[in-house]
Design goal:
heterodimer; A: 332 residues; B: 273 residues; six-stranded mixed β-sheet; 24% strand; BCAA_transport_permease (chain A); ABC_transp_permease (chain A); membrane (chain A); Branched-chain amino acid ABC transporter, permease protein (chain A); transport (chain A)
Chain lengths: 332, 273
């Protein structure tokens, strides 16, 4: 096989892996949009906040250390422990649930029946609040996150694929972290699908997504469902934040991955869980292949910055509801 | 449950009307300066079909919304099953066994007819989330039982042919029937119908009347309904409350109401067709 072809395959596989990470972020958006019609601008910041909290707990950082020191003249920074990853994750989940409850109590409850644009604006406010809150709680320095996921290329894959090409081909380079992220995403999607299709709460969630008044009349508590869905979105944000954070450190730019999720949503549809996954994969693979085959040789590279958006734009023109989005049929 | 069954009676067509299931005591509801309901009291007995009628803007829908917890009256008490009801939310009212339909239909448009009706069973599902997701043991049994009950209602309301159709595609008359099916799926103690015949043609009205009577007869469900169509109300109901400008101006059997002068003046005297 010609090496050029193998490089393209490698780029495609790596693109798929990156796509999984995009899909993880997009999933958080879809969940909230589906159940409450809110485009949660803060989803990216949620991922950052979750990752910060995870690092903070694992490193035994004192939350609000700066504030406490300023107020009481103390000098505390660390509790001096180092928590195992699983405990850190469990405690971070608890924190994300508390945030979901707070969001319902202090924001959503007061904005029932408001137009969508108002709710969208509220989430912009929430995003910047959470960003500042995260800084205040854990500090704004760049942190290293290590929850025990192996990193670097998988030697096993490299060794076992080297024979495919000629002398200059050393096998496919695939990051182990990406493989684990892909498996995690798959498990998450299967669990969420089972949950929404077969459980009482899942059915209630779909009902709330469709019609609030009707949902109330069959005995569904909107508040409970909102807390539930924001909690799930918080957990998804934690998974995304932990994966991205392990890959490139926990820092402010983590919240910008939300911007990568936007074209994924346009492509896959705002209401479809499989759409988020397939959209993520298409964009991840598309941008890597485009860069390799067209971007570098003809356009001077750096096409990854805009390729996803242009692809999404083209999709929007031909299929505004996305690949898997619901087309609401209005009877005239 | 403490019900006053002392004066239960049997109707001409052989149905037993029991004690008081729900009692509204001196209900007053205001929206800002507007009084929608003024000091109204009436009761609903177990097994009966109770109608609330009145001209446009009389406060009928407001009354139904008070019963179902969507509105909170400023004054008065709502008694249900022999106990006074505290401040409740609509979903809690539904969980207590009061199901309802809406004047402007509130269905889950994106879901199939079957899924819509299954949501009516939500308050009856008890097994845990993990078991449901995995389709395990008790959860599977529960799901099957719920499905059987729902299928029975689907047969009963003659909507087998559309069970897999997304509700958004159905014509108006069938949507009304699916909404009734979803309310019935909850096996309510009290069924509230908000203008069940609104916007229907004669044939659809006849079908709906038949279903209402059959539901009451077959499942023994107590029904309270609001309706504009006088002819339909008089044929269906055991007792009728008449409202006008937020006040109660008549209450009794259809015959009593028909001969009530205040009612004739306010409502029946006006030609509607």
């Amino acid at each position: 096989m010609p090496d050029q072809f193998l490089y393209a395959v490698e780029a495609a596989i790596n693109g798929l892996m990156a796509g999984v990470l995009y899909a993880l972020v997009a999933l958080g958006f879809v969940l909230i949009f589906k159940s409450s019609g809110i485009f949660n601008y803060a989803q990216g910041v949620f991922a950052l906040f979750a990752a910060l909290t995870l690092v903070g707990i694992m490193d035994g950082q004192v939350p609000f250390a700066h504030l406490i020191n300023a107020l009481f003249g103390t000098d505390v920074h660390h509790f001096g422990w180092h928590a195992p990853a699983l405990l850190g994750i469990a405690l971070t989940v608890v924190v994300m649930v508390i945030i979901a409850i707070a969001v319902e109590r202090f924001i959503l409850r007061h904005l029932v029946n408001q137009p969508d644009i108002i709710l969208f604006m509220a989430t912009i406010g929430l995003a910047y609040f959470m960003e500042g809150f995260g800084d205040m709680m854990w500090g704004s320095n760049i942190k290293k996150l290590d929850i025990g996921i192996p990193q670097g290329g998988s030697f096993w894959i490299e060794e076992n694929t080297a024979w495919l090409g000629g002398e200059n081909f050393y096998g496919f380079f695939i990051d182990q972290l990406d493989i684990i992220a892909a498996i995690t995403a798959a498990v998450l999607v299967i669990a969420l699908t089972l949950f929404s299709q077969y459980t009482k709460q899942g059915r209630a969630l779909r009902a709330v997504a469709d019609d609030h008044q009707a949902a109330l009349s069959v005995g569904i508590s909107l508040r409970f469902i909102w807390v539930l869905v924001w909690s799930i979105a918080g957990v998804v944000a934690l998974v995304a934040g932990a994966m991205w954070g392990s890959k490139s450190g926990v820092q402010f730019s983590l919240s910008l991955i939300a911007l990568k999720a936007l074209p994924v949503l346009m492509l896959g549809g705002f209401t479809s869980i499989p759409g988020a996954i397939v959209g993520g994969l298409i964009i991840g693979m598309g941008e890597k292949l485009f860069e390799l085959l067209i971007g570098v040789p003809y356009l001077g590279g750096a096409t990854e910055l805009w390729f996803a958006y242009v692809l999404a734009l083209i999709f929007l023109v031909f299929r505004p509801q996305g690949l898997f989005g619901e087309k609401i049929i209005e009877r005239v | 449950m403490v019900l006053d069954t002392g004066d239960s009676y049997v109707t001409a067509d052989g149905r037993t009307i029991g004690g008081v299931l729900m009692e509204m005591k001196n209900i007053t509801l205001k929206f800002g300066g507007v009084t929608a309901i003024k000091d109204i009291s009436f009761d609903i007995r177990e097994g009966e079909i109770r109608a609330i009628i009145g001209p446009n803007g009389a406060g009928k829908s407001s009354m139904l919304n008070v019963i179902s917890g969507f509105y909170k009256p400023q004054e008065g008490e709502v008694w249900f099953r022999g106990a006074v009801r505290g401040p409740v939310k609509p979903f809690q009212v539904a969980q207590e066994g009061i199901a309802r339909t809406f004047q402007n239909i509130a269905l889950f448009e994106g879901m199939s007819v079957l899924d819509n009706i299954m949501t009516g069973r939500l308050t009856h599902m008890k097994t845990n989330m993990v078991a449901q997701a995995m389709w395990w043991g008790a959860a599977e049994k529960e799901e099957n039982e719920n499905r059987e009950k729902v299928e029975r209602i689907i047969d009963f309301l003659e909507i087998q042919a559309i069970r897999k159709t997304p509700v958004g595609r159905l014509p108006y008359g069938l949507k009304k029937r699916v909404e009734l099916a979803r309310a019935l799926a909850a096996e309510p103690m009290l069924l509230l119908l908000d203008e069940p015949m609104a916007g229907m043609n004669v044939e659809e009205k006849e079908d709906m009347s038949r279903f209402i009577l059959d539901v009451n007869d077959e499942f023994g469900t107590t029904i309270a309904l609001i309706e504009h169509d006088m002819g339909v109300v008089m044929d269906l109901s055991d007792r009728v409350v008449v409202m006008d400008y937020g006040k109660k101006i008549g209450d009794g059997t259809p015959d009593e109401v028909r001969s009530n002068q205040a009612v004739i003046d306010a409502y029946l005297g006006v030609s509607h067709d």
